[in-house]
Records
---
Amino acid sequence: DSGVTQTPKHLITATGQRVTLRCSPRSGDLSVYWYQQSLDQGLQFLIQYYNGEERAKGNILERFSAQQFPDLHSELNLSSLELGDSALYFCASSTPGPQETQYFGPGTRLLVL
Amino acid sequence: AQTVTQSQPEMSVQEAETVTLSCTYDTSESDYYLFWYKQPPSRQMILVIRQEAYKQQNATENRFSVNFQKAAKSFSLKISDSQLGDAAMYFCAQDASGAGSYQLTFGKGTKLSVIP
């Protein structure tokens, strides 16, 4: 158990819908990262938040957005869903420092029908 | 832009034997970290080993060790005394810490099978 929690574990929805994925980082970690794992694109970095502020952005679609709250949990919002958004979405957390390492949550498996 | 290449989509090893998974990367940064993550059928991403680019000494974690060749931009993972539980997808990754971001760039993975 990495200490990072993600809910829900599975999500099935229809095209055009909107969903919210939730992540709670490890205790003491200030950074949260979101990654998407799909068969087509592999593992891709989406976005990073550090202590409530956006720190880095990757290949995140405009239909997707995220935020990190004062209690450091983060949410990834996916809207106008398409079939191609079906993927495993991971959250990872880390604490800055010389031993900075990202620890991954169990992921949320999203299926868009 | 960074790229990470794993040229072996699949590998197999006999139980108790040794196997080496290959990884090459391309970056213009001088300061970065390299990682190997394991993804078993449960799909959980598990950190196997990390290497700081400024350290010449190869990292070791029990049966797992790396061969880090900075000039060649090569970062291979050696698994000794392979066990059935080592069967998984293995991903090589690099962060961009030299550029101020720790986001990870992953290779496409190597599927390791362990033969009893």
---
Amino acid sequence: KAGVTQTPRYLIKTRGQQVTLSCSPISGHRSVSWYQQTPGQGLQFLFEYFSETQRNKGNFPGRFSGRQFSNSRSEMNVSTLELGDSALYLCASSMWTPLHEQYFGPGTRLTVT
Amino acid sequence: QKEVEQNSGPLSVPEGAIASLNCTYSDRVSQSFFWYRQYSGKSPELIMSIYSNGDKEDGRFTAQLNKASQYVSLLIRDSQPSDSATYLCAVNKESNFGNEKLTFGTGTRLTIIP
């Protein structure tokens, strides 16, 4: 069974731009969670989607948004990029809920200059 | 108090010895507990999950959970250089509103010395 895939793997953007990241979960998994990982803050929860609905949201500004499609694929968008948004963005999928085992994709490394 | 706390290390263990990693959590209603291994520059990889008190063994790995004391630990027997990585503890809890999420500790960096 194929794992979680994320595209693109690397991105370089400038301040003020926006970016969209994509995540395809493991086949059959319906819950998709997004995380931001930085050396200083560790893994921070962004949001979780199930059946095209956002079920939970972390403490990030409204510039961070996401959505999920009917095939469970998910996207996250960051608008008006700031230097501090440079991070590894990770997507994880689980069968029904994050109570169950979550499997991570390889991540998207975003650099904002 | 952080929701999930781990000693950041680095923890150095000789090859072949037992590595012991610890994690404490603050929310008593937490129900699901996970250990992830993350190599430098890679994404976290799930290595163990544990849901009830006691020990759970999988190969060289043993997870231990004590809900009364609110700690979960990971033992790695016969440590190998390939075990050198950062180990992340993650804790979840069920909510009546379906808004579960994983909370991660900051990780313990483990180095196995040949």
